[in-house]
Structure formats: structure tokens, C-alpha cells
Design brief:
It is a single chain. The protein is of the alpha+beta class. Helices cover 52% and strands 13% of the residues.
């Protein structure tokens, strides 16, 4: 078995203190019994004198976590070695033929704030996966023909697509007008109204949920509800003052009604009938007392309100502008090249 001294440094730098108990438990859990007997001698043989403290059955490493290194080393000893006939560029943890897994890569990939045991498992698994991948890649390279390994056309096509994508984005960023007026959005909506049909019931309104056993808070809130017109600002201030867990008072915003019912679990036999003829309800369950008020609604299969479609229309207009801008620039480039004799078609 050949040991990588570089991996020692890797773990020594990562952990600053390992106690005897951790070393002992990890050793029992992960290292075969036939190897445990050699651990003390390995420690004496490989640990620098500046890292060793008093030895009594098992050493206590006070300054550095050298024990972690030996645990990981013995757990992954099949892969941690040097090939004396090859001079790697830097300390490494594994080698597959002429490919090396350098300790710097392990350091960069190792997640932060991991426990000692998790770091050992992670390192061992990373090395194992890396070795398996390199072995499989080696077989692929040595069993595929030169033609099968030639990806020049695909790489060229991929490079060209990246170049075009990058250049198009630069042109868009430099030339695209992203200002879209509400008038333009309204016009787009009116011209394509049949494209905006609701597939769910949609509402505006308010809701509140107060702890069911907070009878005084519920009583005071009902006094605010009794005012005409409803004092929305006063309701919101009240809920914030008493830390009411559920409330929404923005009656200008459209919502899909089933999303509201996920929050306010009102039970009714006919949702559409309730929206048409009722639209307000008080009820409670084991946890909350609820109040729900719908100020406006659109039923399924009706035209979707513009406010609900505003952002989607804006994005659609931007996409169309991008397409028109790129097509116009491509056309201009083509016409200029044609005038200058930059290309010929036979």
C-alpha cells in the first residue's frame, strides 16, 4: 500500500482538533480490524514530530487533525497512491493511468461546514466516482475508432450557436426598446381578447383569519366590519397591531379563487352560485375564525381581466420585439454583404 503524503496535508489543514474518542469510534466503524493494529505504528511513522503529542494506546493529536487523514486514507486506500514513474504537477489523491485527481480539486469541491465523519465519507465517495468515471472514459477512448471520437462538426455547430446567441443578446441589450406603455398593452389585449379566456374562477376581495379562541379580537374586528363603507386601512392596521396570522386587504388584485380557498377553507356546494349571489361569509374551524369578502369576480370561461394578463402580455410584446429586431439586423447584414460582394451563391 502506498500513501499520499499530500492527502495528509489536505485533512490536517481542514480540521484543527481531533480527540481520542472520535478517532477511536471512527477507527472501529470504518477501518477493518486487520488494519487497526497498524494504525498506531502508522501514526508514529508518518506523523511529523511537531504534530505528535503524548501516546497512550491511541494518540491525542492536539494541533492538527491527522487522525482524520489516516481514517480517510485507510478507507480509500485502493485509490490513494503515487506512481513513482510519473511526476504529477501537484499533490494528488488518486491516479488512473495518466490522469490525476489533485488535492486542490478535492479542496475546492468539498462542501463547507461538514462534520469529520461526513467529510471522510464525501472524500471517499468523490474519489471512487472519479476513478470509475476515468476508467470508463479510458475504455471509451481505447475502444472507439478515430471517426467515432471525432466530434469536430458537433463542437463547431455548438460553438457557432453560442456565438450567435451571445451576439444576439448584445444586439438586443444595445438596441431593444423595453418601454411598453399601458396603451400598447391595452391595444394588444383588445385585439386578441378571444385568446384570454379564464379556465378558473377569478376574484378580487379580502380575507382574514383570527384565532378562534380570541373572542375579544374577533368582536372588535366585527365592529370595524360594520362600518360603511368598509374601512380597509383600519382593518389592516388592526390586524398588524394584534398580530393576526391571516389577512389580505388589497382589493385591487385579482386571484384565482381556488388559491384563496387553499388559505380560507370555505365549504360550499356551488362556488359559482355563491359568487353570483352571496360573496361574503363568516365561518370557523378548530383553529381560526374566518371572514371572506369578494368585491369582484369573473367566472370560468369568461374573459380574463386585463390586470391578470398584464405581465404576460408585456412579456409577449417583448419577445415579438426581439424577434423583429434580430430579423431586421440579419436582413441589414445580408443586404450590406450583398452590395459589397461579400458572398456568392452558385
Amino acid at each position: 500500500m502506498k500513501f499520499s503524503y499530500g492527502l495528509t496535508v489536505f485533512f490536517v489543514r481542514r480540521f484543527s482538533l481531533i480527540y481520542t474518542e472520535k478517532w477511536s469510534s471512527c477507527l472501529r466503524a470504518f477501518v477493518p480490524s486487520c488494519l487497526r493494529a497498524f494504525a498506531p505504528s502508522c501514526l508514529r511513522a508518518f506523523a511529523p514530530s511537531c504534530l505528535r503529542a503524548s501516546y497512550g494506546g491511541l494518540m491525542v493529536l492536539r494541533s492538527y487533525g491527522l487522525a482524520v487523514f489516516f481514517l480517510a486514507l485507510l478507507s480509500a486506500c485502493d485509490y490513494i497512491h503515487f506512481d513513482r514513474g510519473v511526476k504529477p504537477e501537484a499533490p494528488y489523491a488518486a491516479r488512473v493511468y495518466d490522469k490525476y485527481l489533485y488535492l486542490s480539486e478535492l479542496q475546492n469541491q468539498l462542501p463547507a461546514d461538514m462534520s469529520i465523519e461526513d467529510s471522510i465519507f464525501w472524500t471517499r465517495n468523490y474519489i471512487n466516482l472519479w476513478v470509475q468515471e476515468q476508467l470508463f472514459l479510458y475504455q471509451a477512448v481505447h475502444n472507439l475508432s478515430d471517426k467515432e471520437q471525432d466530434f469536430t462538426p458537433q463542437l463547431e455547430a455548438y460553438k457557432n450557436s453560442l456565438l450567435l446567441y451571445t451576439y444576439e443578446n448584445r444586439l438586443i441589450n444595445q438596441n431593444l426598446d423595453t418601454l411598453i406603455s399601458n396603451t400598447e398593452i391595452q391595444q394588444y389585449y383588445n385585439e386578441r381578447i378571444d385568446n384570454f379566456i379564464l379556465n378558473r374562477n377569478t376574484v378580487k376581495g379580502l380575507y382574514v383569519g383570527i384565532w378562534v379562541d380570541s373572542t375579544q379580537i374577533i368582536r372588535n374586528f366585527r365592529r370595524i366590519l360594520a362600518k360603511s363603507p368598509p374601512a380597509l386601512a383600519e382593518m389592516e392596521d388592526f390586524c398588524e397591531e394584534f398580530a393576526v396570522p391571516l389577512f389580505h386587504f388589497d382589493t385591487t388584485q385579482w386571484f384565482y379563487f381556488d388559491n384563496i380557498l387553499d388559505i380560507v377553507p370555505m365549504q360550499t356546494d356551488n362556488i359559482e352560485w355563491w359568487l353570483r349571489y352571496n360573496r361574503s361569509k363568516e365561518f370557523s374551524n378548530d383553529q381560526y375564525w374566518y371572514y371572506l369578502l369578494v368585491t369582484d369576480y369573473r367566472l370560468k370561461n369568461a374573459y380574463s381581466p386585463l390586470e391578470l394578463e398584464h405581465d404576460r402580455i408585456r412579456k409577449t410584446i417583448l419577445v415579438r420585439r426581439k424577434e423583429m429586431l434580430i430579423n431586421e439586423m440579419k436582413r441589414n447584414i445580408f443586404e450590406d454583404a450583398q452590395k459589397n460582394g461579400a458572398f456568392e451563391v452558385f
